[in-house]
Amino acid sequence: MTSNKTTYIEQPTLFIVPTPIGNLGDITQRALDILNSVDIIAAEDTRHTGKLLSHFNIQTRTFALHDHNEQQKAQVLVDKLLAGESIALVSDAGTPLISDPGYHLVTQCRQAGVKVVPLPGACAVITALSASGLPSDRFSFEGFLLAKSKGRKDKFMEIAKAERTCIFYESPHRITESLADMLEVLGPEREVVLARELTKTYETIQGLPLGELVSWIEEDENRKRGEMVLLIHGYREAVNDTLPDEATRTLAILVKQLPLKKAAAATAEIYNLKKNALYKWGLENLE
Ligand code: SAM
């Protein structure tokens, strides 16, 4: 079957279309144009997506594609694409494939030579990171925390020394236990940000040393409610612990005669230490 909606779309394409994570105003004009123009919208939950579509007065027909049927139904959709129909993939909220269905469909489309076009848009990981105040130059998205304590603790141990910001999705009914496990493995000093209800009325973004965050969340039951993202500051070596007193004393003397960079390099050579660690210590303690 060839498409009768070909005015906007030049060739059969699978479009990956993000939808809002709370605030309907976050849908893009391009997303609306694509949802209007395609022949089919493959949706994680057709009833949920139906509400979004009727809000924007979009009449395109939907097709259910969720975690439980994706492996079988992906081929049906690929066949439709190969027959000339265009499809938009959406999930309940945010960007499809990010802790949401779509992986099998995209893989099979690419294998079959079907064009796949991603649209940028709402995504809780990126939205949370952008306002967290944590380093964003290197980060990893680790998906949902596991439901069992042992699995969670293993995961925290795995990332304990990672220097990047690590980001998790968490469900409200496990947040207390998850933070307790995190505290046990990472300790009370690690800075952690809880970003909940992003883009919604009760949006809260709270960053504190983990020990304080655990107390903060216990002060008000509402803080445990809603959708949430947890962001963990990367591991930072405690510089003072690793630099011998003799070396920092030498650096303090040298820095009276030399710029810090040179003083750190000289001290590093004398004591066979890392000049960056000395430089950082100097910045924090001598400047
Ligand atoms: N595909 C989505 C995305 O792009 O972010 C994520 C879908 S995943 C099934 C749902 C999880 O994302 C929630 O349990 C929560 O951890 C996070 N999430 C989604 N919307 C959120 C929001 N408005 N505020 C905070 N976290 C949110």
From TrEMBL:
Keyword vocabulary terms for this entry: Cytoplasm, Methyltransferase, rRNA processing, S-adenosyl-L-methionine, Transferase
Annotated ranges, domain RsmI HTH: 242-285
Principal cellular location given in the protein's record: cytoplasm
Domain of life: Bacteria
Localization: Cytoplasm
Cellular-component GO terms for this entry: cytoplasm
InterPro entries: 4pyrrol_Mease (IPR000878), 4pyrrol_Methylase_sf (IPR035996), 4pyrrole_Mease_sub1 (IPR014777), 4pyrrole_Mease_sub2 (IPR014776), rRNA_ssu_MeTfrase_I (IPR008189), RsmI_HTH (IPR053910), SAM_MeTrfase_RsmI_CS (IPR018063)
A GO molecular function held by the record: rRNA (cytosine-2'-O-)-methyltransferase activity
This enzyme's EC code(s): 2.1.1.198
Gene3D superfamilies xrefs: Cobalt-precorrin-4 Transmethylase, Domain 1 (3.40.1010.10), Methyltransferase, Cobalt-precorrin-4 Transmethylase, Domain 2 (3.30.950.10)
Pfam families assigned to the protein according to its UniProt record, in alphabetical order: RsmI_C, TP_methylase
Domain Tetrapyrrole methylase: 13-213
Record field: catalytic activity: cytidine(1402) in 16S rRNA + S-adenosyl-L-methionine = 2'-O-methylcytidine(1402) in 16S rRNA + S-adenosyl-L-homocysteine + H(+)
Entry's family note: Belongs to the methyltransferase superfamily. RsmI family.
NCBIfam families: 16S rRNA (cytidine(1402)-2'-O)-methyltransferase
PANTHER family registered for this protein in UniProt: RIBOSOMAL RNA SMALL SUBUNIT METHYLTRANSFERASE I (PTHR46111)
HAMAP family: 16SrRNA_methyltr_I
The protein's role, per its UniProt record: Catalyzes the 2'-O-methylation of the ribose of cytidine 1402 (C1402) in 16S rRNA.
Protein name: Ribosomal RNA small subunit methyltransferase I
Originating species: Vibrio hangzhouensis
